[in-house]
Write a structure and sequence with these properties.
The protein is an alpha/beta fold and 542 residues long. It contains 15 helices and 25 strands. The strands form five sheets. Strands 2-1-11-10-12-13-14-15-16 form a nine-stranded mixed sheet, sandwiched between helices. A seven-stranded mixed sheet has the order 7-6-5-3-4-8-9, sandwiched between helices. A four-stranded antiparallel sheet has the order 17-18-19-20.
Length: 542
């Protein structure tokens, strides 16, 4: 016997329609490339998204066609999210920070019919266009007055497209498992692989991250979406904010400390999400200018582990609670968020802090386990480390066009490539990437833990640890450090800082000081680049 409830499909268009009807006057604020701050409401956004949805088929876009974006976080990009997916096509958000060859590969592999781009990326798309013959229209996300002078084939002006259309449009209804969005992995090894989201998976993910123990979004929230909309859909914020009617603030291309601080204060932002490197720049700016937050209360930090020193600074000096998050493109992307349970209320402040350093508990919908090299599940004791496997309704089951073959383990779980532990309360702690863990004398050394200790030194701005080949121990850790400006720090002083914090055999064998560290297109430390740079490095112990 089945239940007698309506079988209403979960449609992305229902989010913007709901926001219009129930939160129509809530604001969307964007810093624009043209100059001024742009303000309008969910009702305005819904009207313009419907106009765009009418324009797409006139340009030859059919259901299931891929429509790409090369754009910053802003109101026009937001409209594209809803117009493209809501009309039955697939929004393909492209990370412009990828290498040129990767961008060409991605556009052609996705078979994009159109590319919408921000003015910043005009030189980039001019280089891409001759190598991407399948793209029939290039649309500049601007008005006629700012349309660039370019020989791009099929160049159109976004505002002209909308002005030519009526908003008399009804969103179509179709199977909720229909593809809605496409994101490619950063491709650290081999070609990037496409992850194809559905309407159903996107809606369920939006529900989950809005929950109190996740982003805790409400109609009274003011949310600054710092995480790029080209980086796994800004971690789902453009979907969860309209779901609850929260004020949505977009920073555009200005992600420097001064610009972000201005928006946080002027728009009374109380919640945001960002990677650690963004926070490092913002905190440096605020410290140098003796500034404080007026309204910001919490931030989700993911993409890489938040260093303990940064978490303490945010909490103790600036009154911002950090919620660690963890996930990956293949998980839409959020899998865990760190929030305390009732049983933790009586813990000491230090114990609460140690708990907060973990990546957190799985959201409802995500199942998780850690396994050893033979695939056997390990105890949930917070000590037994193994590869993290996941499954759930917004977790990938195979890549777009079956790139790379079947990614699932034999029992149907997705290996994440992360190494970690799960404790008795379900909290995940990532100890390393499986390819980054340092294998020394048959034991594992966590590069992440060594990095976190290093950045706790007052003279260290950023640090990375990689394994260097060793004739006796297989690998030994090399610490690579960026010193703070005008800081005086020696190798011996840096190594002494580790005393009493880790076992002696974990101590780095050497320290190298550099001016800067390489980062991936998503802001993470590029260990692949570092390993290539230091592949011939000889440790003093060899």
């Amino acid at each position: 016997m089945q239940g007698l409830m309506m079988n209403t499909p979960l449609m992305i268009s229902s989010l913007i329609r709901h926001a219009d009807r129930c939160h129509g006057d809530s604001e969307i604020v964007s810093r624009t490339l043209e100059g001024p701050i742009h303000r309008y409401t969910y009702r305005d956004a819904h009207l313009r998204a419907r106009r765009l949805a009418r324009a797409l088929p006139r340009l030859g876009v059919e259901p299931e066609d891929r429509v790409a974006t090369l754009a910053w976080n802003g109101y026009r990009h937001f409209e594209l999210y809803y117009a493209v997916s809501g009309s039955g096509a697939i929004i393909h958000t492209i990370n412009p920070r990828l290498f040129h060859d990767q961008l060409v590969y991605i556009v052609n592999d996705a078979e994009d019919r159109m590319v919408f781009f921000d003015l910043t990326f005009t030189p980039l798309v001019e280089k891409l266009a001759p190598l991407c013959p399948g793209v029939k229209h290039w649309v500049a996300l601007t008005d006629r007055a700012h349309l660039p002078q370019s020989a791009l084939p099929g160049l159109s002006c976004y505002e002209d497209l909308l002005a030519a259309e009526s908003d008399d449009f009804e969103w179509p209804e179709f199977d909720e498992n229909t593809a809605s969005g496409l994101c490619y992995t950063s491709g650290t090894t081999g070609h990037p692989k496409g992850v194809l989201f559905s309407h159903r998976s996107t809606i369920l993910h939006a529900f989950a991250i809005a929950l109190p123990d996740a982003k805790n979004l409400r109609a009274t929230s003011s949310v600054l979406a710092i995480v790029p909309m080209f980086h796994v859909n800004a971690w789902g914020i453009p979907y969860s904010a309209p779901m609850v009617g929260a004020k949505l603030v977009f920073p555009g291309a200005a992600l420097d400390g001064a610009s972000l601080y201005e928006l946080l204060e002027s728009e009374a932002v109380d919640s945001t999400s960002a990677v650690p490197t963004v926070w490092m720049n913002l905190l440096n700016y605020m410290t140098q200018n003796k500034l404080r937050f007026s309204t910001l209360k919490s931030s989700t930090i993911g993409g890489a582990a938040c260093p303990p020193a940064m978490m303490k600074t945010l909490s103790e000096q600036f009154g911002v609670r950090v919620h660690h998050g963890w996930g990956m493109t293949e998980m839409s992307p959020v899998g865990t968020v760190n929030a305390p349970k009732g049983c933790h209320q009586g813990l000491s402040e230090e114990a609460k802090f140690q708990l907060a350093l973990k990546q957190g508990r799985p959201l409802y919908g995500v199942e998780m386990k850690v396994v050893d090299g033979q695939g056997t599940e390990l105890p949930r004791d917070g000590k037994s480390a193994g590869e993290v496997l996941v499954r759930g309704p917004w977790v990938l089951r195979r890549y777009y066009k079956d790139a790379g073959g079947n990614p699932l383990a034999t029992d149907g779980w997705l290996p994440t490539g992360d190494v970690g532990t799960i404790d008795k309360d379900g909290y995940l702690q990532i100890t390393d990437r499986s390819k980054d863990v340092i294998k020394s004398g048959g034991e594992w050394i966590s590069s992440i833990e060594l990095e976190n200790i290093a950045v706790g030194h007052p003279s260290v701005a950023e640090a990375a640890v990689i394994g260097i080949r060793h004739p006796k121990w297989d690998e030994r850790p090399l610490l690579i450090v960026v010193k703070r400006s005008d800081a005086d720090l020696s190798k011996d002083e840096m190594l002494k800082f580790y005393e009493g914090k880790v076992a002696k055999w974990w101590l780095p064998d050497d320290v190298v000081f550099v001016d800067e560290l390489p980062h991936t297109a998503t802001g993470k430390l590029s260990k692949l680049t570092l390993r290539e740079q230091f592949k011939d490095y000889r440790l003093p112990t060899c």
